[in-house]
Amino acid sequence: MQTMWLSGAEWFAVLRIGLGLWWLESWRHKDKKTWFHGGGIEWAAGIADRHRWAFVQSGFAVVVKPRPRLMAYVVAYAELALGLGLIAGFLTPVALVCGLALSLIYLVLMIHDVSEQGQNLMMSLIALVALLGMGWQAWSLDAALGLFR
Fold first, then answer.
1. What keywords are annotated for this sequence in UniProt (predicted)?
2. Residue 24: is its pLDDT beyond 70?
3. pLDDT in tens, 63-93
4. Which of 147, 129, 107, 148 is CA-nearest to residue 19?
5. pLDDT at 54
6. Structural contact between residues 17 and 87, judged by C-beta atoms closer than 8 angstroms
7. Close Cβ partners of 44 (under 8 Å, ≥ 6 residues apart)
């Protein structure tokens, strides 16, 4: 498909790269000193403790709360890996699925905060569109290496 400026594959690459920049910004703007010393997880724990859905409270209590430092690193470096992977177009389908999952986790955790929902919904939608549009076909290491044809 050819459009006025770019092909369809190139437009999907624009979405992929834009989403990667968004994830990279999510990583960049974190106060790393506070985040890695438990500040981010403590904040999320407060939200999970007051959550209206019991499965969120219990899931957070079992998976995240017992290991705040580890989970702080997992979250931060997952955002960094997603950003770099999507910008470079490396293992793009994997990055898109993982990014979609992380966005949906954030969406469920932050269900009370309407201002956060726009970001999480948009990131989920972009990931889904880029995945279904095979956003790795142009301007990507995946295309250069012949992966995921």
1. Membrane, Transmembrane, Transmembrane helix
2. yes
3. 999 999 999 999 999 999 999 999 999 999 9
4. 129
5. 94
6. yes
7. 60, 64, 109
By CB atoms closer than 10 A (0-12, 13-18, 19+), residue 39 is middle
What contacts 124, CB < 8 A, 6 or more positions away? 100, 103, 104, 107
Q: Does 61 score more than 80 pLDDT?
A: yes
8-state DSSP, 2 = B
Residue the block writes with tokens 């438990």? 38
Whether 116 and 58 have beta carbons less than 8 Å apart is answered as no
The percentage of residues in the chain with a pLDDT greater than 70, rounded to a whole number, is: 96
Angstrom CA distances, 59 to 51, 55, 78, 109, 144, stand at 11, 6, 19, 10, 40
Distances (CA, A) of 28 to 8, 57, 79, 116, 122: 30, 28, 9, 18, 19
Q: What is the DSSP string of 89-132?
A: TSSHHHHHHHHHHHHHHHHHHTTT-HHHHHHHHHHHHHHHHHHH
